[in-house]
Amino acid sequence: xxxxxxxxxxxxxxxxxxxxxxxxxxxxxxxxxxxxxxxxxxxxxxxxxxxxxxxxxxxxxxxxxxxxxxxxxxxxxxxxxxxxxxxxxxxxxxxxxxxxxxxxxxxxxxxxxxxxxxxxxxxxxxxxxxxxxxxxxxxxxxxxxxxxxxxxxxxxxxxxxxxxxxxxxxxxxxxxxxxxxxxxxxxxxxxxxxxxxxxxxxxxxxxxxxxxxxxxxxxxxxxxxxxxxxxxxxxxxxxxxxxxxxxxxxxxxxxxxxxxxxxxxxxxxx
Length: 270
Known about the structure:
globular; mainly beta; twelve-stranded mixed beta sheet; 2 helices
């Protein structure tokens, strides 16, 4: 036994001594502007405090996301102009006087690094969440907790929904989009389940009213996120939002400008 152990140790030392460090050379490009302009009006609030986050793309193995500082950011609607002021050099731009109006059209204008970016969207309303149902025998194992957040879709109109579920069961939120093509005027639900979800956990459930344009954008984005493959797999398609670089269209930004009424429920699992 001692001879075998000595032999294995010798082989291991030889293997380690022959190991070489392999450096992966990845293609790099000029950083693009990333626009996270989500204007959310929670039911029961004034909706006057809003924030827009600007950052830059970074190399794959870079841990820190660089902020896009020094930009000029504003939203206009009719004769109203809302200036967003940066908080230090964080890339977070805030406005405390925003006036949300349902079905109103707003235009975002960003001036950054000598270029002008614009986007136009409508603030979409959303119905309230009626109630939440819990099933403790869900999932493939029959032991997972499933939640269904029911809401009643208005009839005789097209509606699009963006659901967000946040819990301590996972670090990342669960995101889904729905439309009422086959459920118009009916009571339907947003669905959430996770194998780590247990009893007495708080789950924040948010239902956002969104436009058809945002629904299509997020639907494609979510589909790409479930594709199989390693971290170096080429994405099936470049998912572009509604923000346009008016100065140089080839230097297109990433991200989206969205305005939503939001209904939120904090549910505790049983």
